[in-house]
DNA helicase RecQ
Amino acid sequence: SDVLAPEIEARKTAILAEVFGFDRFRPGQQEVVDAVLAGVPTLAVMPTGAGKSLCYQLPALTLGGLSIVISPLIALMDDQVNALKLQGVAAEAIHSGKPREDNVAIWRRVAAGEVRLLYLAPERLMTDRMLQALSRLPLGLVAVDEAHCISQWGHSFRNEYLQLGRLREIFPAVPLVALTATADKATQGDIVERLFGGTARVFVSGFDRPNIFIGMEEKKDPARQIESYVKARPRVPGIVYRISRKKVEETAERLVAAGVRALPYHAGLTPEQRAAHQEAFLAEDGIVMVATVAFGMGIDKSNVRYVLHADAPGSLEAYYQEIGRAGRDGQPSEAHLLYSGGDIATRRRFIDEEQSSPERKLVEARRLDSMVGFCEAVTCRRAVLLGYFGERAKACGHCDVCRDPPKVIDASRQAALALRLARATGERYGAAYLAAVITGQRSDQVCARGHDRLADFGAGADRPATEWRALLRQLVATGALHADAERFGALALTDHGRSILDGTRTFTLRAPSKAPRRDRASRAE
Ligand code: ADP
Ligand code: ZN
C-alpha cells in the first residue's frame, strides 16, 4: 500500500469521519484512496453498493481544489450531487438537463473556487473551451465514473468516452482515477489501455457475497426440479430465472398449480401487469417471481432468499448480477443453477444466428465459454467466479464444490498437450481452433497456417474435440490460460499454465460419470 505524508493521512482520516460520517473503510476502499492520493493512475472495480463513490470523493476533498467527475447520465450526476450537498459538500453538475442560466451561475461559482466536485458529461468536458477554462483552475483530481463505457469490449460502449483518452496528456499532473462496477478482466485491460495508455494500478474488490451459498445440479427434469426446489423453501421471497417468456409462463403456472404464490415477469406482459407483479413482490414476503432477464434492474428487495437459474445465463457477468439480487440483507441465501449441455448448445446457436459482426460473436462465444467453465469447475465456485473479475479468493467452504468435492482425475498430461499446442500456434487462437488442431482436423485454415505439420498435430485424436474444448475451458477457468481481450479471446499461457507445462503443477478434471475412457487415452499417450 502507498505511504502518505502524515498531514495528508490526517486530513483523509478527519474527512472520512467528519464529512462522510464513517469510522472505517469498507474492504478495498482504503487501497484505492491511498493510491489516488499518492498520484498513482488507478482503476477501481467494485460492484454496485460496495462504496465506489467514496474512493474518489474522499481523495478529492483531501486534495482540495476543484475535482472533475465524469459521468454518462444526468440522473446519476444529480443523485450524487444531491447526496454530497446533504453532507455539506460543495458539489455541482453542469449538464444539458438544466436551464442555461443555472449552468452559467454554477460555472461562476466554479471559477470563483467555491466548488469542490464538478460533475460533467464527457462530451461537455472535452470541448476546447471547457478544457481551457479548467486549465486556469487548481485541479485536485479527475475521476471517470462508469469507466467501462470506454471499452468496446464492455456492454455499454459510448463513443464520447473514447475522447477521455486524451485527459492524461492534457492534465499530466492531475491524478486520474477510473471506477466501474462491471468489468471483467478483458474490459479492465481495455480501460487501462484506452484511458491510461497502458499503465495503471487495478484494484478489484467487494465482489464476494459470502452469505450466498453457490450451488448447481445437473438439469434433468426442470419442471420437477424447480417445483421441488421452491417447495423446499416455503413462504420466502425467491426469484426463478428462465430463458424465454414461454418458459416463464409454463413455470409460473406449474408453481401456482402446486400451491406456490408465483408470479410471471417478462417483456411480453403489459407495463401495468409488470408493475403490479413487481409491486406485489416488493410488498409481500413469500412471492416467487418467475422471470426473464427483464426482471431485476434496480429492484431493491433486501430479503430475497434464493435465485434459482433454471437455464444458464450467457455470461458470468449476467450470472453474477442476477445472483446478487439474493441476500442483500446479509442473511444466508442461495444461488442455485440447473446446468445442461443442451442449454449451452442453444445459447451457442443464438450467438451464431445473431445479426452482429464476427468479432462481436467471438466475444459473446468467449463469454459463454467462461460460464461453461464455471459450471464444469472442479475447484471452488466462488474462487472461479471472483477470479473472473480479477479478485483473488481462497476456497470458500460455502459452495457445492467445497462442501462436496467432485471426483477428479489427473489430466496433467492432456493439459500439457493443449498448452503446448496453444504455444506452438503462437497463443493466437481460441478453444475451438485449438481443439481442431489437437484432434487432427485438416481444415482449410489449419492447413493454410501449416498447423497440420506441428509435431503435436492430432496427438489428441483419441478423444472428441468437445472433450478438448471442455479441458481448455477449465484451463481458462483455473487461470492456466488467459483469454486476451485485445485479440478476441485468443488463449495465452499464464505463469500458472507454464508450470503445468513444465510439470511442476498438476491439473485435474471432473471424473466422467460414464464408462471411463482411460485405457484408450493412456495407450495413445
Ligand atoms: P457504489 O457507488 O459502489 O454503488 P456507493 O458509493 O453508493 O456505492 O455506496 C453504497 C453505500 O455504502 C452508501 O450508502 C454509502 O454511504 C455506504 N458506504 C460507503 N463507504 C462506506 C464506509 N466506509 N462505511 C460505511 N458505509 C459506507
Ligand atoms: Zn467454495
Observations:
- Confidence is low (pLDDT under 50) at residues 515-525.
- The chain is about 45% helix and 15% strand.
- Residues 380-382, 395-396, 398-399, 401-402 surround zinc ion (ligand 2) (CB under 6 Å).
